[in-house]
Specification:
alpha/beta, 12 helices, 327 residues, 12 strands, 17% strand, 7-stranded mixed β-sheet, 5-stranded parallel β-sheet
Length: 327
C-alpha cells in the first residue's frame, strides 16, 4: 500500500471516530417544563428547581435536557403547549405552579408522568385520587395550604379599623380563584368585614382593578395566590404603594421588593421539591405511588419601610410573629 493512500485512510478513520462515539452516546431524557408565566420573573425559582434536580442526580445538559414552554400569562395557550410536549415524547412533564397548568397537562396525556404543584386541594380539583396514593400518571403536589383565613386575620390585626376589603383574583385560573374567594369571604364574615372581589387576567386589567377598588374606597387589599400576580408583582406593589393601600400578599417576593406584608410557604422550597420528585421519576419511580407533599413551615414577612411610607403603624404583637422584618 502506498504511503499517501495509507495516510488518507488513517485520516478518514480518525475523522470517523468522533461520529461513531457520538452515535453510541445514549439519548438524554427530556423534561417538559410547562409554566403559565414568563422566564425572567421566575429565574430564582427555576434555579431552585434545578437545585432539586441536582440533588436527585440530574444536571441539565449533562444527563438530562429540558424543553421550556412559557405561556406569558396567557392561560389559553397552555393546552396547545402541553400537547406539543406530548408530541415531542418528553419523559416527564413538570407544571410547577397553577391548577390550570396541571389540568392542561393532564388533559394532554394519560401516560407521560406529570409532576405538579398547585395551591388548591388536588383531590377536589380532580387532579389526583387521594393525597397518599395519587393514582394515574400524576404525581406530587407540593400543595400550599389554603391560607386565606390566616392572611385575613393578619391584615385585621394590622388594620383593625378597616371595613371595606378588596380581594384580587384571576378568573382565568377558575378553581383557585373560586376557592380563595369562598374562603376569604367566610373568614371575613367571622370578623365583620365585607369583601369586594376584583378580577384581572392581564397587566391592563390589574390597573383597571386598582382604579375600581380605589374608587370604591377600599381600606385594605388581599392579593389572591396566583401565578400571574407573581409575574406582575412589581406592577402590583407599585400600585398598592401609590394608593397607600395596606396589602397582604402570598409570597415573600412581594415585601422583598416593597410590598407591605406576606404570609405563605417558601416558593423556593416548593420548586426544589418539584425538582427532587422529577429526578425520582426519571430514575423509575411510579407517579401513582408517590404521596403528595405538603409544606409544614410558613413565614410572615413584614416590610417596615413600606409601612412607614403608607402611614401604617405595625403593632408589636404582629412584629413578634414575623419571621423576617425588612427595615
Amino acid at each position: 500500500m502506498k504511503r499517501r493512500t495509507f495516510i488518507a485512510m488513517l485520516g478518514g478513520a480518525v475523522a470517523a471516530w468522533p461520529l461513531a462515539a457520538r452515535a453510541q452516546q445514549p439519548k438524554l431524557p427530556v423534561i417538559g417544563f410547562l409554566h403559565p408565566g414568563s422566564a425572567e420573573p421566575n429565574a430564582s425559582l427555576l434555579a431552585a428547581f434545578r437545585k432539586g434536580l441536582a440533588e436527585a442526580g440530574y444536571t441539565e445538559g449533562n444527563n438530562v435536557a429540558i424543553e421550556f414552554r412559557w405561556a406569558h400569562g396567557e392561560n389559553s395557550r397552555l393546552g396547545e403547549m402541553a400537547a406539543d410536549l406530548v408530541q415531542r415524547q418528553v419523559a416527564v412533564i413538570v407544571t410547577p405552579i397553577g391548577t390550570v397548568t396541571v389540568l392542561a397537562a393532564k388533559t394532554a396525556t394519560t401516560t407521560i408522568p406529570i409532576v405538579f404543584s398547585a395551591g388548591t386541594d388536588p383531590v377536589k380539583a380532580g387532579i389526583v385520587a387521594s393525597l397518599r396514593r395519587p393514582g394515574g400518571n400524576v404525581s406530587v403536589n407540593y400543595m400550599a395550604a389554603e391560607l386565606s383565613a390566616k392572611r385575613l386575620s393578619l391584615l385585621h390585626e394590622l388594620t383593625p379599623r378597616a371595613a371595606r376589603i378588596a380581594l384580587l383574583v384571576n378568573p382565568a385560573n377558575p378553581i383557585p380563584a373560586e376557592t380563595i374567594t369562598k374562603d376569604t369571604e367566610a373568614a371575613a364574615g367571622t370578623i365583620g368585614w365585607h369583601i369586594n372581589v376584583y378580577k384581572a387576567e392581564t397587566g391592563r386589567e390589574i390597573e383597571m382593578a386598582f382604579d375600581a377598588l380605589v374608587r370604591d374606597r377600599a381600606d385594605a387589599l388581599v392579593i389572591g395566590a396566583e401565578p400571574l400576580f407573581i409575574d406582575r408583582r412589581v406592577q402590583i406593589v407599585t400600585l398598592a404603594t401609590r394608593y397607600l393601600l395596606p396589602t397582604v400578599y402570598f409570597l415573600r417576593e412581594f415585601p422583598e421588593i416593597g410590598g407591605l406584608m406576606s404570609y405563605g410557604a417558601s416558593d423556593f422550597g416548593r420548586y426544589r421539591e418539584v425538582g427532587i420528585y422529577t429526578g425520582r421519576i426519571l430514575k423509575g419511580e411510579k407517579p401513582a405511588d408517590m404521596p403528595v407533599v405538603q409544606p409544614t413551615q410558613f413565614e410572615l414577612v413584614i416590610n417596615l419601610s413600606t409601612a412607614r411610607a403608607i402611614g401604617i403603624t405595625v403593632p408589636p404583637s404582629l412584629l413578634a410573629q414575623a419571621n423576617e422584618v425588612i427595615e
